[in-house]
Design a protein that fits this description.
It is built from 17 helices and 10 strands. With about 375 residues, the chain is α/β, with parallel strands linked by helices. The protein has one domain: Aldolase class I (TIM Barrel), CATH 3.20.20. Strands 1, 2, 3, 7, 8, 9 and 10 form a 7-stranded mixed β-sheet that branches. α6 links the parallel β2 and β3. Bound molecules: iron/sulfur cluster (SF4). The site of iron/sulfur cluster has 11 residues, from loops.
Length: about 375
Amino acid sequence: MLEQLVRDSQALDRAIAGEELSYKDGIDLMNYDNLHLLGAVADATRKKLVGDTVTFAASYYMNYTNVCAASCQMCAFYRKDGADDAYTLTLEEIEQRVGIAKQMGATEVHIVGGFHPKLPLEYYEDMMKIIKTKHPQLNIKALTAAEIFYLSKLTKNSTKEILSRLKDAGLDSMPGGGAELFHPEIRNKIIRGKCSGQEWLDVIEEAHTMGIKSNVTMLYGHIEKPEHVIDHLIKIRELQKKTHGFLTLIPLKFSLDNTELERDHLVNNECSSVYDLKIIEISRLMLANVLNNISVYWVAYGKKLAQVALSNGGNDLVGTAFSEEIYRAAGKPTTSSIEELATMVKEIGRVPAQRNTHFKILKQF
Ligand code: SF4
């Protein structure tokens, strides 16, 4: 059926044939305006790869500190050390919060923060040891590659040494944050004081090589052009071919409120829902041969658009966020129960399933 329809885009023809899409194909699709057809091909590709199941994890999101030595133009979350609303959780507070999350049914803790200039490596090691000792079954998904890179500079240890010590302390997997967009042309305009795209990729490759799997994100909807999106996806694809260490891609819609990009009028509006869908669709098609999972971050989309995104290439909802300070800083709703997510999925005629960090199905609804 699709084969009969697609005649005006060689890139779409190649996607239907299951071929790897080139950089040029990606650019062509970014400029392709038949969103219905693009969505239909992305959805058919999703169905072929992972069927009709839509997964989600019971995650507890914890931001251990909002103090950050960097000052990224796209960030509404960071505070300088000593600011009135700066905070850093004590190990006791972390233990208490994780205990509550476990009682609520969390199977993983997603831990990220700012680049704290004073916290020693032992703080992170102790955090993981405490969680692992009390809750050995909880997957500790902690610290982005950007945080690992910063810790390496701060403590004058190699990134490999940091990863190894944290793994010994209980680190199981890593979130995908800090990837933003790898291309230096755009990266240098949206972040300040964070590692380069190549440094991010190098750290995550080291983690994958050590058996620490990770997610990867892509921050879009600010000042990027199609070539930056496609460059990002191809870099993910190339590394994935090498390590098979990425579990899912999470496209992150830029949330402009309270950011420097908004204050400086470099971005005045959030991107359209049409662009959101195009990003999900093209992510699905560019990564089709190497990565099965494209996550829909409902926290940024809202539930209704998230349902549409699941019908245009997405197969995973991120997540059951019991807490999520970063998006809250930019004024977004952040919590949902497992049952609400299951209902969202049933409403679009798909099969809801709770998964663990590694996409193993734990329960079907
Ligand atoms: S995005 Fe991360 S590194 Fe950049 S200012 Fe915000 S918390 Fe710091």
